[in-house]
């Protein structure tokens, strides 16, 4: 590492299913920075062969990084706590442990594997936390679903519910205040987004609000396009508009996952989907991802049909959408009036 480079610690968490996305995320980070990256992968059962593939792929292209896989027995780590996610694995909580896993690190970045980095990650690392223990990007405040999440996390009225897929963590402050122990004691009646709900409950109004460019999601873009028609000026709307053109991190959270579906693509999604596949092609997992993508989208096309009934053969009057033997009937192509669920053929 040369003298003019800084060293940036970045944590990611993955099981074997997410190994391809892990590889793509790390490749995109190194592609866009000249600084040295220390990767720490919270390893929930990644196959040894996949680890070797990832390491070799990165070493062939880059030299300004280190990579450490940190095996975590999540059932052991969390056995004495009441957290019970409605997800298949407890590994989603592993991000809580970051400050204690590496006690010599004072500041760190956490990224979900379903992200790609499109600019220098140093920009995020250099953000001033202004004394806050954590930095995060809020969900779009005009999104109805966010209101449900906020209510479920029992947040105060003026809290901006944030997404936990990208975090800037003051590890020193976490250790000093024993935040990890407090987080693991939180019990909510229901967890819609388990780790995220707990983090929002605990850090209610006690986090640094970061720009949407550090965690830009398709839902943010869609919601912003709708809100522009209703609101003339708003800090959130302006931030997302600027972030769409110059994002640092694109987050492919549900439902718009570039490796799964091309459903409902528009110009903005196509741009980011192309960015994802650009990086995917540089990894050893490209062919497998592409085959799965093609198979999934062939099945989508087979199971979807549309039938239009028009007035005078011009004006759409009734639109019948058929998917997986279920029929949804729309009046004038937008007003849902009836859903018909067919019995399975073998019943």
Give a short account of the largest sheet. 7 strands, mixed
What's the N-to-C terminus distance?
A: 65 Å
Q: Give the helices and strands as they follow along the chain.
A: EHEHEHHEEHEHEHHHEEHHEHHEEEE
Contiguous helical run count: 13
Question: Strand order, biggest sheet?
Answer: 3-2-1-4-7-6-8
Structural class: alpha/beta
| Bulk shape | globular
Radius of gyration: 22 Å
Residue-averaged pLDDT: 82
- Strand residues, percent: 15-25%
**Strand count:** 14
Are there runs of 5+ residues with pLDDT below 50, and where?
A: none
Measured as a percent range, the helix fraction is 25-40%
The gist of it:
The protein is an alpha/beta fold.
Word description of this protein:
It is a single chain. It contains 13 helices and 14 strands. A 7-stranded mixed beta sheet has the order 3-2-1-4-7-6-8, sandwiched between helices. Strands 11-12-13-14 form a 4-stranded antiparallel beta sheet. With 347 residues, the chain is α/β, with parallel strands linked by helices. The termini are far apart. β11 (304-311) and β12 form a beta hairpin. α10 crosses α11. It has helices spanning 19-31, 48-61, 74-77, 98-101, 122-125, 144-152, 171-177, 179-183, 194-202, 218-227, 235-245, 267-280, 286-302, and strands at 7-14, 36-43, 65-71, 107-111, 115-117, 134-138, 162-170, 208-209, 216-217, 249-251, 304-311, 315-323, 326-331, 335-341.
């Amino acid at each position: 590492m040369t003298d003019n480079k800084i060293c940036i610690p970045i944590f990611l968490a993955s099981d074997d299913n997410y190994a391809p996305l892990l590889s793509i995320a790390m490749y995109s980070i190194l592609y866009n920075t000249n600084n040295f990256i220390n990767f720490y992968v919270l390893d929930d059962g990644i196959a040894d062969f996949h680890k070797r593939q990832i390491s070799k792929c990165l070493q062939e292209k880059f030299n300004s990084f280190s990579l450490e896989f940190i095996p975590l027995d999540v059932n052991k780590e969390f056995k004495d706590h009441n957290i019970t996610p409605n997800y298949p694995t407890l590994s989603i909580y592993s991000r809580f442990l970051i400050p204690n896993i590496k006690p010599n690190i004072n500041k760190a970045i956490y990224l979900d594997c379903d992200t790609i980095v499109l600019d220098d990650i140093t920009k995020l690392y250099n953000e001033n936390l202004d004394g806050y223990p954590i930095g995060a990007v809020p969900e779009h405040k005009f999104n109805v679903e966010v209101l449900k999440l906020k209510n479920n996390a029992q947040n105060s009225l003026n809290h901006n519910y944030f997404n936990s897929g990208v975090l800037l963590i003051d590890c020193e402050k976490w250790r000093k205040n024993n935040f990890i122990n407090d987080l693991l004691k939180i019990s909510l009646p229901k967890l819609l987004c388990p780790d995220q709900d707990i983090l929002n409950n605990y850090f209610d109004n006690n986090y640094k609000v970061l720009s949407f460019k550090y965690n830009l999601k398709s839902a943010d873009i869609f919601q912003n396009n709708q809100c522009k028609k209703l609101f003339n000026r708003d800090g959130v709307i302006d931030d997302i508009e600027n972030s769409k053109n110059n994002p640092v991190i694109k987050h492919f959270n549900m439902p718009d996952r570039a490796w799964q579906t091309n459903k409902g693509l528009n110009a903005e999604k196509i741009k980011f989907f192309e960015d994802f596949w650009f990086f995917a092609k540089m990894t050893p997992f490209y062919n497998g991802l592409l085959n799965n993508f093609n198979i999934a989208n062939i099945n989508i096309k087979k199971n979807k049909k549309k039938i239009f009934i028009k007035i005078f053969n011009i004006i759409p009057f009734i639109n019948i959408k058929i998917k997986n033997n279920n029929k949804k009937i729309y009046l004038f192509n937008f007003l849902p009036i009836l859903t018909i669920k067919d019995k399975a053929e073998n019943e």
